[in-house]
Amino acid sequence: MLDIDTIMERLPHRYPFLLVDRVLELRTDEFIRAIKNVTANEPHFIGHFPQFPVMPGVLIVEAMAQVGGILAFESTPEMKDSLVYFTGIDDVRFRKPVRPGDQLVMELEVLRHRGHMWKFRGKACVDGNVVCEGALMAVLVPKEQS
C-alpha cells in the first residue's frame, strides 16, 4: 500500500534508523499493518550479539512507534508538515527474539486520538508468533513549534 519512497516522505528517519520497509494495510484513524525486513548487515548486530545476533527490543518498539507515526500522518493530512514524537510506552512485553532473516510484521490499532495526541495498541510478529506487544503514545508537533 505504501512503499519505501512514500514512507520516507512521511517520516524524517533515515538509515540506519528508518525501521519500516512497507505498509501493507492502512485504515485511517483505525489500523495499520507494516513490515520491517531484518537483515544481518544492520549495525546493531555487530555488538548485539556477535555470536547470536538479536534485534534489540528498543528497536522493535521504535519500529512499532514509526508505524504508528505513519498512521497518524495518514489520518491527519493537514499535519503533513509536522514531526511525530514518541511520548510513551505502557505494558510492553517481549515474547521471542527477532533475528536476521526474520520479517517483522507490525500491527497497530488506534485506542485514542484527541487533537494531536495518539495512543495505539500494537503487536509485532514473526511467522505469526507475537514477539512484542504493548501500548504506544505519540504526538504530532508542527515543525515551527519543535
Are there runs of 5+ residues with pLDDT below 50, and where?
none
Name the structural class. alpha+beta
Shape: globular
Q: Which percent range describes the beta-strand content? A: 35-45%
Strand order across the largest sheet:
1-2-4-5-6-3
In DSSP terms, counting alpha (H) and pi (I) runs of 4 or more, how many helices? 2
Q: What is the residue-averaged pLDDT?
A: 96
CATH class label: Alpha Beta
What level of helicity do the residues show? Answer: 10-25%
DSSP strand count: 6
SSE order, one letter for each helix or strand: HEEHEEEE
Q: How many domain modules?
A: 1
How would a textbook summarize the main sheet? 6 strands, antiparallel
Distance from N terminus to C terminus (CA atoms, Å) equals: 30 Å
Based on CA atoms alone, the radius of gyration comes out at 15 Å
The CATH superfamily bears the name Hotdog Thioesterase
Query: At the third CATH level, what is the topology name?
Result: Thiol Ester Dehydrase, Chain A
CATH architecture term: Roll
